[in-house]
Write a structure and sequence with these properties.
The complex is a heterodimer.
Chain A (H helix, E strand, L loop, with lengths): L3 E6 L3 H13 L1 H5 L3 E6 L4 E3 L3 H8 L7 E3 L9 E3 L3 E5 L4 E4 L4 E3 L2 E4 L3 E3 L7 H4 L7 H13 L3 E7 L9 H16 L5 E6 L9 H14 L1 E4 L4 E5 L4 E4 L4 E3 L2 E5 L2 E3 L1 H6 L23 E3 L12 H20 L4 E4 L3 E8 L2 E7 L12 H17 L5 H12 E5 L2 E3 L4 H9 L1
Chain B lengths: L6 E6 L6 H11 L6 E6 L3 H13 L2 E8 L2 E7 L5
The chains are: A alpha/beta, B alpha+beta.
Chain lengths: 419, 81
């Protein structure tokens, strides 16, 4: 019997969790050499990205949030520290930077998103950010500590971007920081957004707009950043507005991974056209995309990558075992937004139900902190029972032997038939 | 820069806020003064979002057409820069 290759590209939340879930479920077949499970990881270090806020606005040590990828994956997984440079979906092969060609029977692309300040004139030179690396986040903290007086702009410089609540959280945490230092009255905080309100979702924005008003954070709506003049310390929008700044913190425009663009399998910005329920790449039934890499108009966040990993791991397992149970993604999102002073709100919804407004609470903040503590264990796949208690019924649609559970729909049935 | 007026369809059907306005911004950034953008949206909030944005940007809504299952919003682009 020929062995089958499952290849996962990308070792962030989605790639690592998918690999571990498959390793657990296919353990015997991997030991019997019926299956090879390969994880192509570009980086040795795995960074817990939500920590960027703590590093930038609370002074947390960024070294605490990076672990060796090899310590996070199960022993059944063949971890290859090689960068994919080309993906050929037709011939089912991947070229790596070590001039190796890897073939696959099933492919999962979890290559994430890349924040690129260089895509806007002057942005690299004129701004700080907490979306490119932990080291860049640390620069914000260093700058804040010396900041005594003036105007801080928080600007969303492109959409979509990773972790939609994060710019709002930045504004809240900066407000908290200067209040605690007793110099808030010396600092003007402006929030520049391409959207018409403080948060893209109108319902959530009801809460955020009110809180911004209470904290003295001014929202500048419909500001699409065109360029930055770092010598004059000014930002300009396509709509014709300009603002002077003393400190500019920007969310840079994001794009799909270079390998997606180089392989010609994404859209113009490098997002992979993906079926939003079964996570297959459009026109393919043996290749999946998950997490930030997809073109699905939904939050680019760790929770989304997590839930999609469960679906893809389950469906690949079902196919290999000849089982009929398939999962489908409902578009469930669940993003905590820290609003300062130890409180948070949750932004939850699905494809069919937009988020509802909710008031800040201490318990939601604590839930966010607990999740952060659990993150490394979550990646092992051993804590899925907790996620199932919290998420399962509203996150996955299931079809099993023709009997629908939850709200399984035709997309899943169709998908099952094509395989 | 080309002075030719271009027309582009921006299909945001099936996405909720901020999907339609996000897709519109992407097209707007790549357009020239005078270009026509036609936004197709199923989200009822798209109309009010686009109206508010055009007030700020100076772009002009030429027509709003209710078609079967979606709205077509036709916009003439005005670029300040």
């Amino acid at each position: 019997m020929n062995s089958k290759n499952i290849v996962i590209i990308g070792s962030g939340t989605g790639g690592t969790l998918t690999a571990n879930l498959l390793a657990k479920r296919l353990r015997k077949r991997i030991i019997n050499q019926e299956i090879k499970l390969i994880l192509l990881a570009e980086n040795y270090g795995h960074y817990f990205q939500p920590a960027s806020l703590d590093i930038a606005f609370k002074g947390a040590n960024h070294r605490k949030f990076v672990k060796d990828e090899a310590s996070l994956v199960r022993k059944e997984i063949r971890l290859m520290l090689e960068r994919a440079v080309n993906i050929d979906l037709t011939n089912r092969t991947i070229d790596t930077d070590k001039e190796r060609k890897v073939s696959y029977d099933y492919l999962v692309i979890a290559t994430g998103a890349v924040a690129m300040p260089s895509s806007i004139p002057g942005l690299s030179e004129g701004s700080l950010n907490f979306h490119t690396s932990p080291e860049e986040s640390a620069k914000i903290w260093k700058t804040l500590q010396k900041f005594e007086r003036g105007r801080i702009l928080i600007a969303i410089a492109g959409v979509p971007y990773k972790c939609p609540p994060s710019p709002n959280e930045a504004a809240f945490l900066i407000d908290e920081y200067f209040r605690k230092r007793g110099i808030r009255k010396n600092v003007e905080i402006l929030f520049l957004t391409p959207y018409g309100r403080a948060y893209p979702s109108a319902a959530v924005s009801e809460v955020v707009d009110r809180l911004f008003q209470e904290r003295g954070i001014e929202v500048v709506p419909y500001f699409n950043l065109e360029s930055v003049d770092y010598a004059l310390r000014k930002v300009y929008s396509y709509e014709g507005e300009e603002f002077r700044y003393d400190m500019l913190i920007a969310v840079p425009p994001h794009f799909g991974s270079p390998v997606i663009r180089a392989s010609g399998i994404g859209d113009r910005d490098g997002w992979i056209p993906t079926n939003r329920t079964d996570m297959t790449i459009k026109s393919y039934d043996d290749a999946y995309a998950i997490g930030d890499a997809t073109d699905i108009p939904i939050s680019k966040s760790g929770v989304v990558a997590h839930l999609e990993s469960v679906i893809v791991a389950n469906n690949i397992f079902s196919e290999i075992e000849g089982m009929s149970e398939k999962y489908g993604y409902t578009g469930r999102i669940n993003c905590p937004m820290e609003v300062g002073f130890g409180r948070a709100i949750f932004i939850s919804g699905t494809y069919k139900s937009p988020p509802n407004p909710n008031n800040p609470s201490r318990i939601k903040y604590l839930m966010k902190r607990i999740f952060s503590k659990l993150y490394w264990n979550v990646l092992s796949g051993d804590l899925e029972w907790i996620f199932n208690l919290y998420f399962r019924d509203i996150s996955y649609k299931t079809v099993r032997q023709g009997q629908y559970r939850h709200e399984a729909i035709s997309e899943i049935t169709k998908s099952s038939k094509t395989h | 820069m080309s002075t030719e007026t271009r027309r582009k369809i921006v299909d945001a059907r099936g996405t909720y806020c901020p999907g339609p306005i996000t897709e519109l911004f992407k097209a707007y950034k790549e357009s020239n003064d005078g270009d026509i953008l036609e936004l197709l949206a199923t989200d009822p909030a798209a109309k009010s979002d686009v109206k508010a944005w055009t007030k700020k940007s100076g772009s002009e809504i030429i027509d709003i057409i209710e078609e079967e299952g979606h709205t077509r919003i036709i916009i003439k682009v005005k670029k300040a820069r």
